[in-house]
Amino acid sequence: MVNYFHLGTGNYHEKTAKLYTDFGLISANKELAEDVNKFFLQLTGSNAKINFKHLFISPIDSRKKIMKLISQEINNKKNNKNAYIDAKMNQLTERNIISKLYEASQAGVKINLHVRGECILIPGVKGFSENIKVYSTIGRYLEHSRVFKFCNNDNPKLYLSSADWMTRNMSNRIEIFFPILEEALRERIYHEVFVLPKKDNFKIWRLDSSGKYIKRTPSKGNRKSHSQDELCKIHGTFNES
């Protein structure tokens, strides 16, 4: 008996699938499959406490587990180990997590956030959030994936999720955070989500400490580069029109 499962960052909706960019994982990994099976057992009526090996579940423990991962980066930095956080989401409004990110910044952890929509975190304030940068990409596709990478002293942990870092997603909805266990897949996701936008000089905005978004523009003599177009080229779907 082999258990296959699909976990993703988006919705099963044929119209939004044409406009939204998301990630999905189809796998038969035994440990993840066991967690998914436990999740559905609990969802359909089991009141017993269930321990998950890999998954974080809202509203059970996702906030607690995320705070723990951020705390680990803080501890690593304080012990002169490598530490950073890269995260991508639609909205960032969960105040407990934001407070923990401020704490991480003050400890010297470099934090790179891509938040497409609402973000109540204030980046770039000296002595407070100066190690946090916030970006937003706007293009033909609505960027909808939720991706979270923690350095873990150069043994990176990368999670995908159906949830943003919002109070409603932590406390009031059923959501899943799941790890990407294969190194090749982690590298691919990291490249598409965090590396390509670094080269974007056409459709990316940076949030400054005053709450204003500043659009990045190509310097004189450089060609326009848009991360969504580059992604389409990688996957053979680019169309100039």
Secondary structure: elements and pairs:
Elements: E1 5-8, E2 20-21, E3 24-27, H1 30-43, E4 56-58, H2 62-78, E5 84-89, H3 95-107, E6 110-115, E7 132-137, E8 142-143, E9 146-150, E10 157-161, H4 167-172, E11 175-179, H5 183-199, E12 204-207, E13 213-215, H6 227-234
Parallel strand pairs: 2-8, 5-6, 6-7
Antiparallel strand pairs: 1-3, 4-11, 5-9, 7-12, 9-10, 10-11, 12-13
Helix pairs in contact: 2-3, 5-6
General description of the model:
- Helices cover 31% and strands 23% of the residues.
- The protein has 241 residues and is an alpha+beta fold.
- The protein has a domain at 52-185: Endonuclease, Chain A (2-Layer Sandwich).
- Helix 2 packs parallel to helix 3 (95-107) and helix 5 (183-199) crosses helix 6 (227-234).
Kindly summarize this structure in a few lines.
The protein is of the alpha+beta class and about 240 residues long.
Main attributes of the structure:
Endonuclease, Chain A; nine-stranded mixed β-sheet; 13 strands; 6 helices; 241 residues; alpha+beta; two-stranded antiparallel ribbon; globular; single chain
